[in-house]
Specification:
This protein has helices at residues 9-12, 42-50, 94-105, 114-124, 161-169, 182-185, and strands at residues 2-3, 54-64, 72-77, 88-91, 128-138, 141-150, 153-159, 177-180. It is α+β, with helices and mostly antiparallel strands. A hairpin with a 2-residue loop joins strand 6 (141-150) and strand 7 (153-159). Helix 3 runs parallel beside helix 5 and helix 4 packs across helix 5. It starts with a strand and ends in a 34-residue tail after the last helix.
C-alpha cells in the first residue's frame, strides 16, 4: 500500500434552512444538522429524536493499494475509545485522492486545486462550513451533505464524501466530519438520512452521488 500524502501529483498518476435564533445547550455534533424550531410540535420533536446519532470521525489516510488504480480513504470513529468500530473505507477518484492527500498533509499544490479555490471562495463570501456528514450507503456508494451557514442563512447541499472532507480540512479551523452511526453498525445498505428527506436530488435531477466505488464507476 502506497500513501499519497507525500507523493506529488505526477507520481500518483494523477435546502435551505435559516439557523435558529437560539441554540439549545449541550448539543452534540450530530444536532448541528437540525436547528431547533421556534415552536416545535410534539410530532416534530419525536421526528428529531428518531434521527440516528451522528459520530465524529477523522480521516486518517488516503492510499493506493496496487494493482487498484483508485485511492482508498480511511475514516476512524474519533469517539470510539474502546476500538469497537472498524474503520470505514471507500474508494475515490484520483484527482480527489490527490487533493485529500494534500489536505491531510497540510501542504499546498504549486497552483490552487479545485478544493483550495472553493474553500477560499467560501471564506471570502463569508460562508462557514458547519459540518460535513456522511448520511448513508447504498451498495458501495456513500452519500454525504455539506452544511453551510452564510450571510443569507443556512444551506445544506448534497456532496460526495471526498469533496466534503477536502473542504472541511481546508478551513482555517477544520470543520467537523460526522458519520451516521448506522454506518458503523450495519454491514449492508443504510438509507441516507438526509435533511429534507431521502428523495432530495442534486442539481442534475438524480440521486446525490457519492464517490466512485465500482470498477466501472471511476467518477
Amino acid at each position: 500500500m502506497e500513501g499519497l500524502a507525500g507523493a506529488e501529483v505526477e507520481n500518483v498518476g494523477a435546502k435551505s434552512e435559516t439557523a435558529g435564533a437560539e441554540s439549545e445547550p449541550e448539543r452534540s455534533f450530530g444536532d448541528v444538522r437540525e436547528p431547533p424550531a421556534p415552536a416545535a410540535s410534539p410530532g416534530a420533536a419525536t421526528a428529531i429524536q428518531a434521527r440516528p446519532p451522528y459520530r465524529l470521525v477523522r480521516a486518517v489516510s488516503v492510499d493506493v493499494a496496487l494493482p487498484d488504480q483508485f485511492p482508498t480513504v480511511t475514516l476512524e470513529d474519533a469517539e470510539d475509545a474502546e476500538d469497537r468500530h472498524d474503520p470505514i473505507r471507500f474508494r475515490i477518484g484520483m484527482a480527489e485522492g490527490v487533493a485529500l492527500a494534500h489536505a491531510l498533509a497540510g501542504t499546498a499544490a504549486p497552483r490552487p486545486l479545485t478544493h483550495d479555490l472553493f474553500a477560499l471562495a467560501l471564506e471570502r463570501l463569508g460562508v462557514e462550513i458547519l459540518a460535513v456528514r456522511l448520511t448513508g450507503r447504498i451498495g458501495a456508494t456513500y452519500f454525504a451533505e455539506l452544511d453551510l451557514l452564510g450571510p443569507t442563512g443556512r444551506e445544506v447541499l448534497s456532496c460526495r464524501p471526498s469533496d466534503g472532507i477536502c473542504l472541511a480540512l481546508r478551513q482555517r479551523v477544520p470543520a467537523p466530519v460526522l458519520c451516521d452511526g448506522r454506518l458503523f453498525e450495519a454491514a449492508g445498505d443504510v438509507s441516507p438520512d438526509e435533511l429534507g428527506g431521502p428523495s432530495r436530488t442534486d442539481e442534475l435531477g438524480g440521486p446525490s452521488r457519492s464517490d466512485p466505488l465500482g470498477p466501472a464507476d471511476p467518477g
